Structures
1.
Amino acid sequence: MSAMPDAPSIGRSIAWLSRRSATDSNREAIRDLVGKTKKGDAVAFGGLVDLYQQRVFRTANALLGSNADASDAVQEVFLRAYRNIVKFDDSRDLAPWLYKITANVCRDIAAAKRRHQGVSVDEQGLVSTSPGPFESVARSEQRHLTRLALARLPYKERAAIALRDLEGLTTREVARILGTTEGTVRSQISSGRAKLRRIILGHDRRKP
Amino acid sequence: MTCPQETELALVAGGEGRDRRISSIESHILICERCAQEVAEFRLVRSAVATSGSHMLPNAREQIRAEILERISREPLGRAASHPLLPILWIACVLIVLSASAGLVLTLQPPQAGVMPLAAAFDAHRPPAHAFLFSERPEVSPESKTMAPARFDSSGILESAQLKFVELSDGLTRIAQLRIPAKDPSLEIHWIME
């Protein structure tokens, strides 16, 4: 395992970070980017955007069911993050903080949309719709169906499922992000999964 | 063991149940084909969710990134990096207004002869605010950067203290910091001088 690059330029450290998973050493580099952002360094903040943009988009897309809304959410999440980064405790992991902002932003967008129209799920625009040469159409359809099913869950269940099953966070982390208890998250997850099972697999409540 | 609830099976599929309960359900699954099938379906659902994530195309990422950076370039820097004493300033401003409305506007003898500036004092550590009337100017220079003895009469309550002035980076706001060792060494009072 290589050590931190010596006196890395921000650009180089971003490239270095992008190639690695979250470890203690790159956490140090992320802290460096956060510190520079706190001093008003927009380039350093751009590095944080590069690192977390996909994750924020993926989560927002699962929560909102719309690529266009997810793209708007990404912008809003990073704007709020920039405005509030001075309050962020450097000793903590940045990802849960961003997930929390994402959940809040998406909740606001979803609420605003509910007032105007129903939830829609689109599959166009900014997302790679071609699954790749080796991925079947059936798989692409399955993804679409899953996203439709997610969009039909109540927002809190959708958020718990997205953070747990899509982002792979623990129930404790999900509870912290959503500002609730682990018991509530477990309840939301079990209820959400049961609904998804019925929607995706067409199963009703347990049959004898 | 009777068949577990659907919600429990949903949790077992993701490993979220309580350890002891999981063990008993897993034992049950080994002998109950229906529950095993149900857990398998929940795992399938989890897997479907896990692989349902969308990814932005590189050009879309670049475009959104550029828009974010363009928008933050219009944000005032101070919004991102506020002064650490800003919360104290806000509290002090509110207290000044409250004190004035309650007839507790205080006067502090200025270091130099002239108009007596208004000041509201509050205990920084133990709200609510304490109000003091300084009838004798503190014997300390406004440029003093260290704690210096101050002597004053505040309605007969306080007689001596240590005092220093702190000028904020805006060059306009001065905060007076007061300690009263005889009363309580840990008591520290801040107030904003006009």
2.
Amino acid sequence: MELYELTAHELMDKLNSGEITSEEITKSYFSRIKEKDNQIKAYISLLEEEALDKAKKVDEDRKLGKKVSKYAGIPIGIKDNICISGSKTTCGSKILENFVAPYNATVIENLNNEDMFFLGKTNMDEFAFGSSTENSAFYPTRNPWDLDRVPGGSSGGSAAAVAANMAPWALGSDTGGSIRQPSSLCGVIGFKPTYGLVSRYGLVAYASSLDQIGTITKDVTDSALLLNLIAGHDEKDSTSMNLEKKDYTLSLVNDVKGMKIGIPKEYIGKGINDEVRESVLSVAKKYEELGATIEECSFEVGKYAIGAYYIMATAEASSNLGRFDGIRYGYRTKQFNNLKDIYRNSRSEGFGAEAKRRIMLGTYVLSAGYYDAYYKKAQKVRTVINKAYNELFEKYDLLLTPVSPITAFKVGEKIDNPLEMYLADICTVPINIGGIPGMSIPCGIDSNGLPISFQLLAKPFGEETIIRAAYTYEKNFNFRENYKPTFKNSK
Amino acid sequence: MSVNKKEIVHLAKLSNLYLSEEEIEKYAKDLTEIIDFASMINSVNTDEINETIAANENFNVFRKDQVIPSMDRNLLLQNAPSQDDGMFRIPKVLN
């Protein structure tokens, strides 16, 4: 077995016992990347030199018997909207093509503190606007399970890198499903924590009231280990919550007896592909066999979440993207006579089609005469959705739904129809609106050999319940041992 | 609800974007479709319901009014498309 096939915790065990070195791990990943990434295109930039230097340093420290973190010497992939000081952070956009981050995101500081380091920056839909990674200004990423299909998005590069063994784990961001949906389409574990659990400082903003950094891993143990590092209060993000630090690995318990799990009937009905529904229902059955109580419930207002989401998210995006003016950083047009020209031409030449569409939409719903009808109304619907979640979580420990209504679609299939692309997020956006945690866990493959996943949701800061149930499922059905990506074309 | 080409031109102006005739046409169609779809939220009864403006209950988060080192000026200027004497350089604003 090659080192790149192992999970992060397996690598940590071997590294800490002295069986292998960090340099060997790092070289194994870069040789894998060189072998596979010309097909997958998961990375925008690689940080090979920096990674190898750091690996050698950590190996040296271990050799000298210095006290090092158990995570020391483990590499990771980082979505290209999270700032690493001194490295390019492009957000998948031409407007930030040459932007070198002058500081570290708080999550990057957290990983640095453990002497972890970075394989590279992963591809994404421009500014995280999309569900297929086709909106990257550089190139689309391909799905390792079928090279003619998309990996999902917007964290498609991170999900594809982990699925293709080009990173042991990765960080992504999730505003409406951008961690969970690509994780589902690539057959890996994607975890979006509660809003406020992980600092957003240094994450380039898309929709600030919905954005959350989270993890993409090969198994649930790695999700808990990585969450342990990135969760915590940060003064630099005033929406981060000041709570007692938890050890999420304590929830890696193979037992769901007595747990109450609700299945909202709206998410196993019309609009969900038959094979996806069957697979998710078989997960429910599995949980029942393992001692949990399964009950059908209703989340009727959930169907309006997608409408409210695209109003709120684009409103916030249009405002957040106002900062790109060609003055302080980012692309500046060559064609200008005055300041106004710099603004307009830099933005028009620098932003891609979907970014422009969302800026226009957001400006529309915020403009005089429409503000009350759209933006304010959507915020009221948000209150109704939160209330519905509160009521459901009074009755249930967890909710179980599909992640994506369909498995991976073909490259080019939805790119010309924005509304159809938006519907790919129908099962994932309500969670961001509620600010609650959600995890995507693979549970089977469809007749085309593509991964199907289910989603576990809990009340705010209910990460431990999710981890416990996900771990129990994994212990009883290990997707990774049963199925592997094929790197084939479907044509 | 339809978003016409005139409105698109106005939105582009507000957004500091220049759009080609082709883009104006395309965005008018896209925005009409998306807004029509999103209007589904009008079916939700929100009488007596307040807006939610944030995803959690953090409210008026204060910090101590302390002087701490800020980022290095040269570091922050390294991404500027044009700079001069420690400042961002822009074209003349007043004639």
3.
Amino acid sequence: MDVIALSAWDLGIAAALVCVLSLLSLFLSLGLEWKILIFSCRMTAQLLFIGIVLRFLFASGSLPIVLLMATVMLFAAGREVLARQNLRLKGITGYAIGTGAMFVSSFSVSLIALLVIIGVDPWYTPQYAIPLLGMLLGNTMTGVSLALDRLTDQFYKERGGVEQRLLLGQTWQEASSDIRKECMRTGMIPIINSMAAAGLVSLPGMMTGQILGGTPPMEAVKYQILIIFLIAAGTGFGVISAIWMSGHYLFDNRHRLCLERLSGSRIRKR
Amino acid sequence: MVQPSSSISPPQNNSCRLRVEDLRFLVNGPYTFVLKEGECLGLSGQSGVGKTQMLRAITDLIPHSGKILLDGVPSTSFPAPLWRSRVTMVPAESFWWYDIVGDHFSTEFDTEFLKEKLAAVGFDKDVLNWQISRLSTGEKQRLALIRGVCNTPSVLLLDEPCSSLDGYHTTLTESFIFQYLRHHNTSVLWVSHDPEQLQRVAARELCLEKTGLVEKTV
């Protein structure tokens, strides 16, 4: 079965619904009418653009172009992780830690999936590689940014307790172990929760898309299970390595807590 | 209870325990002084001059330059955690990170010894099961002192150890520190704003200024 192609009219009807919502916002004075319209247009433009990019990518299918696309995605995700933190790790290291953690986890898990599990030939076939990496990066990004935001916040708030533990002769690993464990949990909880809800509460988007595209439900489900496993593993590895690296960054070799390596609005306000 | 008196003097052994040479941190220094074995040295100075920061520098919690030697061995040749358990600072404000008092004390520690120390500063043995949220500031301060001596450090850096205590508990704590120092031959650097207290407990007193130390004649 083939996908029914959508015409401009079809999209126009759906867009009209959003226009109605915008009018409703005006009558209810929610103040959202312009936001709804502007962000609808922005979303449309972004997706049309990526549609063009993907068409080009799929047509060429060459390794350097796939790698270029993957790199762009990685750096965009790294920027997003930094933007979501209230207190940031200073300088290039702050950017490198988030990006590095996502690189290690998302790229390695994607490679395993492409080479070993799916076994697509060649392994960088963009129809598989790019969506897979995109889903992994998106979820790892959420986990890593949650965990790092919590980590910097906790070290800032609990610095008295951490320094007290250092004063009693604990190593930085011991003095920060509770905080680091808590942050790793914070980063992994969303994916664990989404595993619990998958299928019962929510039908995962990728599976829904495949079913709409005509894939038999059982095949779609198997792909979805694979993706969730990959996401869980990727997020977990990403969160653990990000916390591990930031721990090293926030303490020096004499086991001192170096909060001057954090920057953010809250430090300046106080 | 033994009352501390002006008779506190260094025990027989007068050898140098802690030697601080040209210590600089932040905009302070250079400071040079010696702490003898079993000696209690008072440290006073205006508020904000950097007394607490000096203790933090000596225990290697903030970056500093200069030399600090314990029994002739420089601090840099100790791993930092070991140095801090040999040269232990007890800050004026204590922090607690678990719910129960006892969880903050190392389990390897001899419990009889611990209970004896706790009793000496006015706690009954049940205190280890108390909730942290139940403690008053003064109780926390006394418990933090006991927690600090658990590693049996060679040098104790006390930052206003009696700042939140009433008269009765101040006397109790002073005599505890005095007895502890005699018993373990520990050296103490005692920061206080109270000149009378320093006269009671310290054999010598140094006054901290931004650029140096002035020895006060007691």
4.
Amino acid sequence: MEKYIILDHGSGGLASQNLIGSLFLKYLKNSVLNQLEDAAVLPPEHGQIAFSTDSYVVDPVFFPGGNIGELAVNGTINDLAMRGARPICLSLGLILEEGFAVDELEKIIKSIANACDYAGVPVVTGDTKVVPRGKADKIFINTSGIGIVEENININASQAQPGDIILLSGTLADHGITILTSREGLQVDANLLSDTRPLHFLAQAIVKDFPGAIHTMRDPTRGGLGTTLSEIAKTTKLCMEIEENSIPMHAEVRAACELMGLDPLYLANEGKCMVLAAPEYAEEILHRMRSVPEGRDTAIIGRVSEKHAGRVVLTTVAGGRRLVEPLSGEPLPRIC
Amino acid sequence: MHNLSTNQSQRTTSTSKTSHLHLNVTGIVQGVGFRPFVYKLAKKLDLTGSVANTGHGVTIHISGSTADIDSFVDKLKTDPPPLARISEIQFTAEQETEFADDFTIAISNDSEIKTTLISPDIATCKECINDISSPENHRFHYPFTNCTNCGPRVTIIRGVPYDRPKTSMAVFPMCASCMKEYHDPSDRRFHAQPNACPMCGPALSWHDNQGAVISDINEDCLKGCARALQKGSIVAIKGLGGFHLAVDACSNNAVQRLRENKHRYSKPLAVMVADLTTAERICLLNGKERELLLSRERPIVLVLKKQSCLSDKLSPRIREIGIMLAYTPLHHLLFDMEECPEILVMTSGNLSGEPICTDNSEALQKLANIADYFLLHNRDIVTRVDDSVVRVVRGRLQMIRRSRGYAPIPFSIPGIKKTVLACGAEQKNTFCLSRNGLLFLSQHIGDLKGPANIDFFEESLDYMKSILDVSPELIACDLHPDYLSSRHAAASSLPGLNVQHHHAHAAAIMAEHNLSEGLAVIFDGAGLGDDGTVWGGEILHVEGTSYERVGHLAPLMLPGGDRATHEIWRMGLAYLSAGGFDISKLTALPSTLQDIPADSLPGIAMIMEKKINTPLTSSVGRLFDAVSSLLGIRQEVDFEGQAAMELETLAWTAYESKDSMPDGDRYTGTIVWKNGQWQLDLRPLLPWLLADLKKGTPVAAIALFFHLWLVRSTHKALLQLFAKRYPTQTIMLGGGCFQNRMLLEFLAERLEENGYSVYTGEQVPVNDGGVSLGQACIALRQTEHPAQRPNQTNF
Ligand SMILES: [Fe+3]
Ligand SMILES: [Mg+2]
Ligand SMILES: [Zn+2]
Ligand SMILES: [Zn+2]
């Protein structure tokens, strides 16, 4: 086998078959994928079908706490989980740059396999293309996923109610700050790690245990918690009131944000969910979430109100209140 | 552009020999004693007919001899009531109609279009002060005394035409005696809509900070308040346009407690005194400042402090203090109380980042943790208006915050019909609405990032639209997409225009002084430039509605974006790094920087090297911060401009001691040409600063040298520009940094010595409070006369 990806690996010919056999099937094997048919055919399920897709182009491909492979698996699982779905399978599409190291690819495929095993969600169909050098950056991954949502479950932004509590399943901004510092080669803190992880165990636990009480779930990935909350506020015309003090954050993440002058509310998370739930069960939901490993650091960070319709209001550590609005792009200095 | 503060009138149709005339008077002619004035004048001249308020203003029908009618019109033009501001008088000769045999005041008709103007609130007049201080007067000690010449206006008006039912006085039916005054055209209170007396009008109540009533007898409330202040308590006092928080200004403890309770640790606090004599004891006043203090607008005037009993915690390390004179009967009565301290801190009654409280229950709830007592009353504040802040620079007014007494008096740019809404900047926000060539600059709104301030913005905008009866046809805002004011504009479906921040600053000055071309020096904090970088030290050539950036400060990095505006040591480091210093080690830095967090140094060095969130800025405000940091003046700021104000204060100390000048001569800027633009190179300044520091030159002297360097360099750059490409006579100085008196005075003086005409913001703030007016002018002019070379982008 070659040490580097060549164009032939995507040709469909022998080189392709070789790659599929020695890498993909080796690590990802399961009864459906093994058939290598044009489409995966799945047994029937009861319930509503959830279907989601996402593409992953993260730079660097390997980063502290994970790599692009597990990120792609967890990311799509999380999108399904946020609608209350039980994920049942994934597709895996790879676009490889000519010259990409095969042993790096192998590491990525291995971590995809591990992530699938841990989550209990198999890859049932896949595809690989190779593009000439410079036409892609090392590796791009697309994953799509199917999940099943119980008949009576309807979780989305418009279910949010005034009075709902806002929970966050753990520390903020770990992924965003890790990617930024590792991409730029900044030696800020050795303890910065991406938080990539699947959230369906956590989501399923509360959806099942508190029927009707879980109104909205979102994973604040790109754009961060601030942008996600703003979207919900705009959709519902309600006010999201959050307290800076109660948002869990790793000290090293906070320090890095302060150093760079970045607002952690706009940095990406890859293993956190935000839950809007009925206030009657606040303590029980908090407790239940903390009982799942992925939700160990869950905190109630705020409340939904009707005070400032369509807005997100942050009470700062100093006690002031300020609006959190989605940014139009990179943060631009604004103080005159 | 005209400010309607001078009465102007035009006779569009001349009176012929007819003995019947119909006049339509527009401007601020309601609620200012206009009708009784007309009534008395008509009576005196033996004219018959009628006068009425309409949605347009005032309409007058008169009959009589031609000579009498002529003198009536003359008097109307030359000597209208003191608070009236006539924008136009239209005349129509009338055919002989039924001959009235008397002159009457007709009742208001509100079915017509509402185009009348609303008066701002006016300080209590001398006659009313006499009333409340004469024991025989039935308004003796009555805190809500007013008349046609004074008292609340815009703060109590819910709708137009201005009549009592449309004010928050509607709930106080007048007693027989007030009613008599109200209906007597010869009385000072004829049709004074807020007219009231102790029998029928609003009343005080005195509460503890749990809201419990201690007293509801006016006299006892005043006494209770005076005593509490004497003992050093913090009192929330309901005023005209909102609440104040008051303490004894000579008590360090009381001031300190107010600062701590309010979390306002160092921002200057304004004081109020009863009269000019008391004011002269604590500050140095010139003629113009006295005039402003006594003016009916009664703004806070920023003046030089004197050695006095004043707590040094009021404006620490800053040489000016904000002072105002009592402007309501309540203030006068309070100061009249024997126990009342002579000088009171009167700062806005709000939570930090929120607008001032106007409502009793809101204040009781929000200010309970700040104030010990509440002096309330039961007249509602309809429109929130802060105290205005002004100062005198070069013998002229410099508006810092335009609110009570000034807003909503419009500015005019005749001939422009379109209706525009300009949303303004994000901090010190004001908005501007136009109607028929009049530009209505809103009262000061504040920092829109505060959730309650954006509500204030929206409420005020709705109020202004309804009072003026306009709906905008186009909308203008800043180029910065993330300003909340720009977001407001982006959410609108109206055609929009993004105006570059510093261009808007320049346009505001052009509008105020009726200029069409010139070089604009805009020294400011930060504004987004049209090249995507952060501007703030600009020389623009402005012509019509277009501009060209012809020069600017050499950019510095802003390490950590907006964070560098609070942690100004970041700017100090950015400057050192631009000068080639290794800033990763504390030992490599000047000793003035020893206070900064040592563990941040490698990190800051790294983000500057990797250019992570370190945008470049040509801002003069940030240069002031950088120099303040290097001189060790402070390393963090609590409020915008704090370091620059302290630096300026030091510079004046050195200037006034006169012994540090000669050395400063070597501080002269290096002007370089780069890409067809002038750039002021900052690098040569750095070694001078550091050498002087090392040598032990007093920091005050270095602060002065720095000011001189900036003045000389800017002057030099302008002379080069004039000579090379822009043979103009007109220089505009704008942007927040020109609130620095030394910068403005010295630069203007030099330019005037060279024969140039120098203009700056006077009635319109040079800070971001004036940006909306500039945006409005550009938008209006551009739609009427599209620019040759457009420099704005449509959304
Ligand atoms: Fe500005
Ligand atoms: Mg997705
Ligand atoms: Zn009066
Ligand atoms: Zn009365």
